[in-house]
């Protein structure tokens, strides 16, 4: 179903602003792509937006987001740093982010976003990287809130092999989803802690997102453009390393005991 913001003036208030009332969605799946370890979520989300030529659908105006104006190559139009893109045919939403979420505003950001997910009857797929020395294809496992465990079982996504915690803004989103009882799943992949990791993002798309959404995702471009992707996103990865509280990550629980 298409969601419309209230007609009253909402400037200065935390909200999601929908720009495309002509796009109709019915209980969509939402893939979250906030920056984190290996930039796995961002790379996967950006790839979905590109490969399906998704439409710019809505913008997030939540606490914790930097007040910056983002622009792209050969496009003079500026946009906010966190946006939602839609694919009406696949009933799919993707949350694309070009900037980290402030740690001090993560709770308010999560409340703002999850409240809109509930209103829109969206089922989120949260994405995180776990720092690891990889051997072969990166391992992917899943966590859940609400009725998400059945979704993971149906998609053949394995549960975690150890205790752990999802941190950063994605951890705040998962926590808020659990608190409100929203059905969601989280996919965690082994990833490079220092550099952008297109290989791990590809594993998320093939092993988790594709079976959960029940449509094929062409990931050849991630392999062919791995070096280019790494260069393009290296600066953001460095920024996140220096400010780890802004970075989404999944880590063994022993680190927090």
TrEMBL record:
**Segment Disordered: which positions?**
234-257
What single Pfam family name could you report for this chain, choosing any that match? PAC2
InterPro entries registered for this protein in UniProt:
Proteasome_assmbl_chaperone_2 (IPR019151), PSMG2_sf (IPR038389)
Q: Which Gene3D superfamilies match?
A: PAC-like subunit
Q: Which protein are we looking at?
A: PAC2 family protein
In its UniProt entry, the species of origin is given as: Haloarcula argentinensis
